[in-house]
Please model this.
Amino acid sequence: MAGLQQRLDEFKTTFDSGAPPYNAPHEAIETMHRATAELKASGIEDRSLKAGDPAPGFTLFNQDHVQVASSDLLRQGPLVISFFRGHW
Amino acid sequence: MELEALQQIHSDVRALGAEIVVLTPELERYTRALHKKLNLTFDILTDLHLNVASQFRLVFTLPDYLRDLYKSFGSTLDRFHDEPEYRLPVPARYVVDKLGTIRSADVNADYTVRSEPSETLKQLQRLAGS
Model:
């Protein structure tokens, strides 16, 4: 199985070419590149929490409407937290 | 792709005594469907109105021109997220140790760049060994 970044690169190549299945119009691709460049330039990567910072705790509902607390998970061991924008 | 890649390392993560959670602004009716579709064995948590992502300082507002573009694709974030202001988290993956300290932070404003899950696994192995 190819690595994650390799698959992302393949997606990007296909998407940016305007080919199927995405058939992205040229203007849309330009717009998205502009937005990504602006977001990078905004400095958000530097402002975000870094190694050495304390992680904020949370209690949130999971997909089955069960409350999950980070403090409970951390009692068991280390935690990987992935921030995901959504499926859209 | 990120979720599928994390799913592939989940059993190894568990074997190291660690766990994975995914935080998304999506409402529960959508996370339930996605969780089922991808056959995930870790939780997707709804970070309603990006309260936790804000504390990690990962939140940005989509510029108007991009909002209009996504709308033209038929994507309506306000419906998926109850987010009328079209705010989103920057994609990020953190490893937090048992004491609650962040040990690694992979944050990238370009949504097509992610660190490999194998790197995350190595980080957890170092934590387990220390």
